[in-house]
Amino acid sequence: LSGRQIEDIDVFTYLQFIVPGLTMMSEITNSYMNVCSSFFSTKFQRSVEELLVSPTSEHVIILGYAAGGVARGLCVGSVVLALSVFFTSLPVMHFTLLWLFAFLTATLFAIAGLLNAIFARKFDDISIIPTFVLTPLTYLGGVFYSLEQLSPSWQLLSKLNPILYMVNGFRYGFLGRSDVDLGFACGMLVFFVFLFYGVTWILIRRGVGLRN
Predict the structure, then answer these.
(1) Cα 19 to Cα 70: distance, rounded to the nearest angstrom
(2) Is pLDDT above 60 for 6?
(3) For the range 144-149, what are the long-range contacts, defined as Cβ-Cβ under 8 Å and sequence gap of 24 or more?
(4) Contact 180, 188 (CB under 8 A)
(5) Is the dihedral of CA 27, 29, 30, 35 positive or negative?
(6) 52: alpha, beta or left, given left = phi > 0 and alpha = psi -120 to 50?
(7) Sign of the alpha-carbon dihedral angle for 118, 120, 122, 126
(8) What's the angle, vertex CA 36, arms to CA 33 and CA 42, rounded to 5?
(9) Which residues, in sequence order, are CB contacts of 179 under 8 Å at separation 6+?
């Protein structure tokens, strides 16, 4: 793992470069699947009906499940970071940005997992998006390489991947380097968090996928 190609770009070793990306991968997967599997289980067991007839508001339902997903995502990500110290030293350049991107990313995918669970009708449905959408996007999101290594056409194509902005924003918190504009990355995350929250609120309020 000498990572000579990466070292030719920056002063950081290959392990230092990929650790933030691997951390973000684990955070995305766990925050998404925690909420998706938990909420679908309540649908499968029909206990979601008790939740709907209770005075609990839609906001409380969303925030409750999302908080669980965020907590699990951040905890798993922290464990990955803790284990990485046995293999490499990782500087922290911008602590506030680090936690901002970590929190926003975990929140976004926790709510996305809730959306998946709302539409899911069987257990196979909760694994389709993580397997065929999240996994390819994550591996092609700049976790193992820098955009500077790609040709201009592939750089443009890579910039259509939203996970690229999350990984680079999180990596910037550690290494102080990013292949994308951080202001745009943060704005995109905030926009999608509110968008997914609004869509989820509407679906739960209307009982879509819950009262059938």
Answers:
(1) 20
(2) no
(3) 144/18, 144/21, 145/6, 146/6, 146/9, 146/10, 146/17, 146/179, 147/179, 147/180, 148/9, 148/179, 149/5, 149/9
(4) no
(5) positive
(6) alpha
(7) negative
(8) 135
(9) 142, 146, 147, 148, 164, 168
The structure tokens listed for 41 are 């289980």
Number of Cβ within a 10 Å radius of residue 61: 21
Tens digit of each residue's pLDDT (9 = 90 or more) over 129-148: 888 898 889 888 888 888 88
Q: What is the amino acid identity at position 165? A: Y
pTM check: above 0.85 = yes
Burial string for 91-113 (b: 16+ CB within 10 Å, else e) reads eeebeebbebbbbbbbbbbbbbb
Burial class (CB in 10 A: 0-12, 13-18, 19+), 116: buried
pLDDT (tens digit per residue) in 164-174 = 999 999 999 99
Q: How many residues does the chain have?
A: 212
Check the CA dihedral 4-9-13-19 and report its sign.
negative
Q: In this structure, what DSSP letter does residue 149 have?
A: G
Query: Could you give the CA distance from residue 35 to residue 192 in angstroms, rounded to a whole number?
Result: 17
